[in-house]
Amino acid sequence: MSQTIFERYGGFSTIRKVVSDFYDSVLDSSLAHHFEHVEMRALIDHQTAFISSITGGPGAHYTDEALRRVHASLEITEADFDQALAILERTLRDHDFEHEDVATVVGNFSNRRAVIVSSVTSA
């Protein structure tokens, strides 16, 4: 039986480091304004659980409706989403994730574009 992405890279410990580094980069980018009033520790916990689940480990499974509701007021544009995906891809590569595994994780996020993007402008 083959290992999941979650298992191959060390489980929660690695996923937590990836998520922390991802948000360090996000907060040092033009996306930072989306997180001005966010409790980052709680967000990192949620995102760690979410990424753990999409990599084959235990974690939180969020419905599309829950994701839409949480992101609706954030005015996330297509450009914002693309930038976040690029940061996620770079962060996974920085943590030595294999190309196929990066594509899987980024693809899982990309599949949620329609419920996260709430603004059609790219400003």
Structure commentary:
The protein is mainly α and 123 residues long. It has seven helices and no strands. The chain has helices at residues 5-8, 12-27, 40-54, 64-71, 78-94, 99-110, 113-116. The N and C termini lie far apart (47 Å). The relative contact order is 0.17.
Strand fraction: under 5%
Number of helices: 7
Mean pLDDT across all amino acids:
91
- What class do helices, strands and sheet pairing give? mainly alpha
Shape, principal axes of CA atoms: globular
Give a short account of the largest sheet: none
Task: Assign the CATH class.
Answer: Mainly Alpha
Order of helices and strands: HHHHHHH
Question: Which terms would index this structure?
Answer:
mainly alpha; globular; single chain; 123 residues; 0% strand; Globin-like
The gist of it:
With 123 residues, the chain is mostly helical. The protein is 62% helix and 0% strand.
Per-chain topology:
Layout: H1 5-8, H2 12-27, H3 40-54, H4 64-71, H5 78-94, H6 99-110, H7 113-116
Helix pairs in contact: 2-3, 2-5, 5-6
